[in-house]
Amino acid sequence: MSRSEALREDARAMQGELAELRHLLHRRPEVGLQLPRTQETVLAALDGLGLEVSTGTSTTSVTAVLRGGRPGPAVLLRGDMDALPVHEETGLDFSSEIDGVMHACGHDLHTAMLVGAARLLHAHRERLAGDVVFMFQPGEEGWDGASYMLAEGVLDAAGSRVSSAYGMHVMSAMNPRGQFTTRPGTLMAASDELRVTVRGAGGHGSAPHLAKDPVSVAAQLVGDLQTLVTRTFDVFDPVILTVGLFQAGTKRNIIPDEAYFQATVRTFSAEARDRMREASVRLCESVAAGYGLTAEVLYLEEYPVTVNAPEHAAFAAEVAAEVFGEQRYAPKVYPQSGSEDFSRVLDAVPGCYLFLGAAVGDDYADLPNNHSPRAQFSDDVLSDGVLLHAELAVRALDRDAATG
Ligand SMILES: [Zn+2]
User: Fold this and answer.
1) Which of 5, 67, 346, 375 gives a 20 to 30 Å CA spacing to 268?
2) Contact, 129 vs 398, CB < 8 A?
3) Both 222 and 157 in a single domain?
4) Same domain, 57 and 148
5) Measured in angstroms, how far is the CA atom of residue 58 from the centroid of ligand 1?
6) 229 and 203, same structural domain?
């Protein structure tokens, strides 16, 4: 039996245990950087494989190193483990048992798939031309868990810097079940936050000339920021700015002292991000000043742009098509406007991030999207996710051993 056939058979044989593990994780979701029960579950699932396992000091991350049968470089596979503050409404029999917390982004599948990949590659370790680092990461959902793991040395866990890194994300809608997709270059947006406090002087609503009305200036800024985006940024290097929170005032006839809003800013290149950081702050400050008010503006950086090295995106596409057939891989035409802290890994080492369709129905486009309280992810993709992880690692090691 060829190596690929053996991997495929062993991955398929895991389907039942992977679904069980996934359901266990799904029933007990945890949010943020501290996921003690999830960590315990992962450690138990890896137990007995003889991996070099270490746990995070600042978070509940788990790093596991598998030594291959032959010396060579090391590659990294990553799975995020955290859930969301969402109250589950799927009605599934393995629904969340924690009120107000749900694996609504499918990270329970990611965790189970990475455990599966560790088990599968362990069973085939003699054929590995190097080592594999398994990165079980907490806090992807806005907590920047990846940066804690990077600071604690995950990229060097095998003793030398990993030569490449791969990860994937399941999608409840948007892709047909079982379809892999990615693209070279920018895959996902950078995500930043803009916080604006417009300070004026409160007064009587009937006499605005005796006050300095922060509400009208802040409201104007909401529109002006859209004008900034459409009039000064290249449409082919897009920017998205959404004001999702706006707070001011207590009563219709009282002009308050302050108005406050928050926006999320998504950019798709480092250049657009740099420009937006500068331009949005300048606009808010100068428009407020124009009316004799002040604006205190904070531009907070969250996640950078997720960029696939072109040769690694081509490699991942080739592996997916070879292992599962051409019809199971679709090149992704446009980047996605979500963001990902795997971007931090891909900033440090080359690699590729992919999406895997996990829709439970065939009319995938109509299904509730990731983060919805009704989002569902099919167990059916688990063993294929494991197999792709494993094939990426095996082939990347062969490739990097030959070149490096
Ligand atoms: Zn996610």
Assistant:
1) 375
2) yes
3) no
4) yes
5) 21
6) yes
As a whole number of angstroms, the distance between CA 364 and CA 86 comes to 21
Is 169 marked as a binding-site residue? Answer: yes
Q: How would you classify the pairing of strands 164-171 and 74-80?
A: parallel
312 is known to lie in a ligand binding site: no
Residues 52, 201: Cα–Cα separation, whole Å: 61
pLDDT tops 70 at residue 404 = no
Mean pLDDT of the 375-386 span: 98
Between the CA of 106 and the centroid of ligand 1 the distance, in Å, is 6
pLDDT at 329: 98
CA of 25 to the centre of ligand 1 (A): 15
Q: CATH number for the domain including 58?
A: 3.40.630.10
Centroid of ligand 1 to alpha carbon of 171 (angstroms):
9
**Cα(127) to centroid of ligand 1, in Å?**
32
Structural domains of the chain, count: 2
Known binding residue 209? Answer is: no
Residues 291 and 327 in one domain: no
Ligand 1 centre distance from Cα of residue 112 (Å) = 14
Mean pLDDT on 354-361: 96
Same domain? 24 vs 119: yes
Percent of the chain with pLDDT over 70: 100
Helix axes 36-46, 107-123, angle to 10 degrees: 20
Q: How far is the CA of 105 from the centre of ligand 1 (A)?
A: 5
Residue that terminates a domain, selected from 303, 325, 351:
303
pLDDT value of position 304: 97
Residue 303 has pLDDT above 90, yes or no: yes
What is the torsion angle, in degrees rounded to the nearest 10, for the CA atoms of residue 287, residue 289, residue 291 and residue 297? 60
Across residues 222-236, what is the average pLDDT? 98
Q: How far is the CA of 182 from the centre of ligand 1 (A)?
A: 15
Per-residue pLDDT of 2-25, as tens digits, reads: 889 999 999 999 999 999 999 999
**Can you give the residue range of the structural domain that contains 234?**
190-303
pLDDT band at 152 (very low <50, low <70, confident <90, very high): very high
CB 295 within 8 A of CB 220: no
284 is in an annotated binding site: no
Compute the distance from residue 347 Cα to the ligand 1 centre, in Å: 19
